[in-house]
Specification:
Elements: E1 2-7, H1 20-29, E2 34-39, H2 45-59, H3 71-87, E3 94-98, H4 101-104, E4 113-116, H5 121-124, H6 134-150, E5 153-156, H7 159-167, E6 176-178, E7 200-206, H8 215-226, E8 232-238, E9 251-255, H9 262-274, E10 277-280, H10 289-296, E11 301-304, E12 319-322, H11 328-340, H12 342-358, H13 362-377
Parallel strand pairs: 1-2, 1-3, 3-4, 4-5, 5-6, 7-8, 7-10, 8-9, 10-11, 11-12
Helix pairs in contact: 1-13, 8-11, 10-12
Length: 378
């Protein structure tokens, strides 16, 4: 079987889709699948995207989510993939398009596309996307509908996305499979953690958006934990710089750490190794690969039950998924519970590692994808 990984940016680049696309490519390369890549961007596309965004903003007066959710953008990428595929002497069995609705929607190529989104447009609008006007939203939804219809196969990383394809797009689910994403960090063998005799408890938050990742709630949580406590709780935030005039104690900001940079990757790995809890009060999350990374390190996670999170953090098993209207007090209560009940903490840590091994890794993703495609061919 031959699979071509198609992406607007270089599929091998760890910056593309936060490293998800490159991990898909790498794990397929290390399997029995024959794999290659197609990059759609060229020198012209950067200028064309800027031009189109300018037209929508200043002439059409429409707020769009991004270039890919416009009809102009989707038709452009459809023509780009058709041109490249038409030049190929030998076609692949499947063309895997991570987050590739705009690639598939208007393509006229007679090939088998695999659509691999982390969510549908209908889920994303008024969730990740805000303030999109009705006309732009309808077009974005139409592009997703066409991609879902035209794709030979669809793989999604959560029940949240799976149910949307079924209920919002009324798709024949025989061609759809739920396959969890893996961790976008190098594998590290870990053992279950303990809090025995620990007087300093470390909390970790990894995210680049202050509001969406719920940083204010995490800050208030660490404040509550340090009140009248015999232990010291320290929160480390990776992905954001320390704001000016920030004076709260027991909080460290590490800034953005680039996984493509070996030194910065090691710094990030050290933070995961040294932490006791992963806390992320995220307001919106399609999947949350950071949860797979925390599971690999055996770190109990406390987060919100939103989007596709429940597929990556199993409530009361690998951590806690709180209701979206819960606040810092509820986050602090869950952490205090596990600090008090060390045996429970150790069990949750062990569960997280097992869940990573069973489901939240790219090797399992690759195997499940191959099984799904081979079953379809039989």
């Amino acid at each position: 079987m031959k699979i071509t990984v198609v992406s607007i940016s270089d599929p091998k680049d760890k910056r593309t889709w936060s490293g998800t696309t490159s991990h898909m490519y790498e794990t397929l390369s290390n399997s029995e699948v024959d794999v290659d890549t197609i990059t759609l961007k060229n020198w012209f596309t950067k200028f064309y995207i800027r031009y189109v965004r300018f037209i929508y903003k200043f002439f059409r007066k429409q707020k769009i989510a991004n270039f890919e959710t416009t009809e102009i953008g989707a038709k452009y990428w459809g023509k780009r993939i058709d041109k490249i595929i038409n030049k190929q002497q030998s076609k692949s069995d499947f063309y895997l398009c991570p987050a590739g609705a705009s690639v598939i929607a208007y393509s006229n190529s007679d090939v088998n596309f695999i659509y691999a989104p982390d969510a549908t447009y209908k889920l994303m609008n008024n969730y990740y996307y805000s303030g999109i006007d009705g006309k732009s939203a309808n077009i974005g939804d139409k592009i997703d509908s066409l991609a879902i219809k035209n794709a030979a196969k669809i793989i999604v990383p959560s029940k949240w996305a799976y149910n949307s394809i079924s209920q919002d797009y009324l798709q024949n689910m025989d061609k759809v499979s739920l396959i969890h994403f893996g961790s976008n960090m190098p594998f590290q063998r870990t053992v279950s953690r303990t809090l025995d005799n620990k007087n300093v408890i470390n909390l970790l938050l990894v995210g680049v958006e202050w509001k969406r990742k719920g940083v204010d709630i995490a800050l208030e949580t660490v404040n509550l934990l340090n009140r009248d406590s015999t232990k010291q709780y320290i929160l480390t935030i990776v992905g954001l710089d320390k704001p000016k005039d920030f004076k709260q104690k027991n909080v460290n900001f590490k800034g953005k750490l680039n996984k493509n940079n070996e030194r910065e990757l090691k710094l990030l790995q050290r933070e995961y190794n040294n932490t006791d809890f992963f806390i992320m009060p995220t307001q919106a999350e399609a999947a949350g690969i950071v949860f797979a990374e925390a599971a690999m390190y055996g770190i109990p996670t406390i987060t919100y039950k939103t989007g596709g999170v429940s597929d990556y953090v199993l409530n009361n098993k690998t951590g806690f998924t709180l209701e979206i209207n819960d606040g810092a007090m509820q986050f602090a209560e869950k952490i205090r519970l596990l600090v008090k009940e060390n045996k429970l903490y150790e069990q949750i840590s062990k569960n997280a590692i097992e869940y990573y091994k069973d489901s939240l890794n790219w090797r399992t993703w690759s195997k499940n994808l191959a099984d799904f495609l081979e079953k379809a061919n039989n």
